[in-house]
Amino acid sequence: MKENNLAFYLKIYFKIISQDIKSKMSYRSDFIISTIGMIFTNIAGFVSFWIIFRNFPSINGWTYNEILFLYGFSLISLTPVQCLFDNNWNLRTHVYSGDFIKYYFRPINMFFYYQSEIFDVKGLGQLAFGIGTLAYSWHKIGLAVTPLSILMVIVFIITASLVMIALQNAAAATCFWLQNSFFILDFVNKFRDYARYPITIFNPVFKFIFTFVMPIAFIAYYPSLVILRPDSIPLLSWLSPLFGIVFFFLSYKFWMFGASKYSGTGS
Amino acid sequence: MSAIIEIKNITKEFKVLNRREGLKGSLKDLFSRDYKIVRAVDSISISIEQGEIVGYLGPNGAGKSTTIKMMTGVLEPTSGEILVNGNEPYRSRTRNSKEIGVVFGQRSQLWWALPLIESFRILKDIYRISDDDYDHMISLYKSLVDIDELLHKPVRQMSLGQRTLSDILAAFLHNPKIVFLDEPTIGLDVSMKAKIRTLINALNKEKNTTVILTTHDMGDVDALCRRIVIIDKGKMLYDNDIEHLKGFFGSYRTLKIGIDGDLTAEAEKIQKEFPEFSVSNDDEWISVLVDEEKSTVMDVLGRLQASRKIKDMKLEEISTEEVIKKIYEEGV
Amino acid sequence: MKLKKYGTLVRAGLMESLQYRASAFVLVIGNLLYLIIIYFLWKAIYASAGTDTVSGMTFSETLIYLVLATALFNFMEMYIVWDMGRSIQSGDMVLMLLKPMEYRSYLFWSYSGEHIMQFITTFLPTFLIVCIVTHGAIPLGINLVYFVISVVMALLINYYINFFVGTICLYTESIWGINIMKQVIVMLLSGVTVPIAFFPETLQKIVYCLPFQSIYNAPLTLLLDGQPESGNVLSILVTQFLWCAVMGIACRLFWKLSIRQITVNGG
User: Fold this and answer.
1) Which of A150, B114, C34, C81 could hold C179 in an S-S bridge, CB 3.0 to 4.6 Å?
2) Model's pTM, two decimal places?
3) Which residues of chain C have a CB within 8 Å of the CB of A34?
């Protein structure tokens, strides 16, 4: 019997999402309104950011453009969770109604099967917004553009994404035990907005908490130090890819453990 | 021939929260929770062979779905042993699911937004169905049901009947050894039910697929099942062929009479006359379920005729539904 | 008789929220962490500004404002757009319309139980803690009365805005898009994330012409003002009242019009 390898999963994934996108495009008004909503969210985020910095030239030695860099970085790193793992938001409903049972009956990884069902196109708008912001601040700060720095940015953005995906997976999976886990997911979701500020503003206790307990510092701060402060990169920045992978793996295990505890309501 | 499903003494227990009632109750629940253990399935053993169609019956909450969930790898048994096609479903869920197909009535497993043919194509990849097998299966489907209009319709736009049909076709697509059908005809109209029964029978014959079916519809049982298993409150009540079951109650026959007047009142009167038999009525007939070991049908008819004018009468063998009802009520 | 009917709804809402004890717990923790982040963020901002007062507000004033705004936001949060959107899509709306109670008041009174619960569990403790911690930075006088009146009107305005947006769901399937647009607009323009005092002047003028600041900014202004001038108080309360009336009428008209259209179309 053949094992299901990566190529097998990729093939299935692209088949499902290409069909999904095709069918979504046929609901044009929904697509357009959602995209406008997404653009609104990004503009509003940017405006509150701008209002604060209009009054204050810098925070803790971080200039406007540097914080803008963090902002753009976090937007890009939040794109994968938006595009690829958006079905986590529906998990609660599926579990509650009993429809979740269907994910047990296919000879493929359940987590994969579940997440593959939805590809959220709206996230691509956020990606464009993030890339624009990052490129602008990159230029303004006067950072060099070398193949190495581009490669580093890509690697560390993927790292940061893994952390956010991990947080969301874990939050969504709580619905296997709690009835109304929307609050937790929403709570984690709100935290993304705070990921974009430098962790140095916190005192040691909360620095520790936001690094190791609720690892939001890995969504933008630690990974972007590699580009922003190349002279003094802390060990945690170099370790962040490892953390990303570990967090993701743990959240995956937690999700699957939850699914194995599920008994399927209804008859 | 060895069994394809071998269940030995499985038991499944659930921990259920006792919710208290009223505003005061929910306040109390806030601080202390009270659990009780419910045994949904209680040491059941079944052995099923390749190619059988087995009707798995029981009233609501009897534990049917729980058993199916254990056979498909969703739930882990509390104790006991299940082997499906040589696999322990819960431990090797992925391997097990390659050889089974599952349909839960009213819960579609197809991709909601996609046309059926696209769902089939994705399933072809997921189950690694070869081109030849896939084409063969599609042409078999075309010979059995009229699927051309379904193939290009998104599942979300289908009627319940079309969706169930599609789900059944999808469940058989990878030519599994076993297909589980949970209430496949629930909520469907008569002609759709007939269509689905014919389809299941044909696929079972053509591919020698084992079919495990739960249903409340005795029409399904009569049309499909050669063997039935009945459980109630988690315990096995009966496991044998359907003919054998009827043999159990072979001495029973239903005498139906047509008379004038208020049938309900008459039926009550007759019940008093014959306390040993169960009497019921509908708009046309009064039915008396006669146990011929106690007295003959002719005897009963004679006594009935003595006191009232009988316009019409007919004699029926006991129906499956009545047999099963009797088993729920009084056991074998 | 009529009151009893509403009473039952309030009671049902109370019971429902009690059952989700886990979510209540998460909500408390979530708010605490959120406030901690706000605290450190603004502390860093003020430290970097070098002056005690920025845009006419001191650090502690900004903090008190934001803490109470957050508490107010949590207390008033409602998911009416989702509820309405879902019941429209599932067709349950038709059943709601058949109930012997106007749908608008049905929704409002159903939410009231939750609001009472939220007021007790989120706003009140926050308020008391702030009072104690800041040693009387919040004046306790006639302003409390103004505040309560203002909050009730704020609740109504918030409800009307939500109901108005929810009605749009009769025309489109895109609940997500509609809801997110409403959410970001309210969040930004009501002064819940950044105090309106920090806004640039032109933006401030625009914001004061819109109903959103009446939801959070208005009650908080009344609460935090120790020497209320009757003219000032009156103008805030009258503005709120006018928005209540305008939004109430707008809601009613829009709903009636939309429902008629739907009954005609047989949707």
Assistant:
1) C81
2) 0.77
3) 174, 176-177
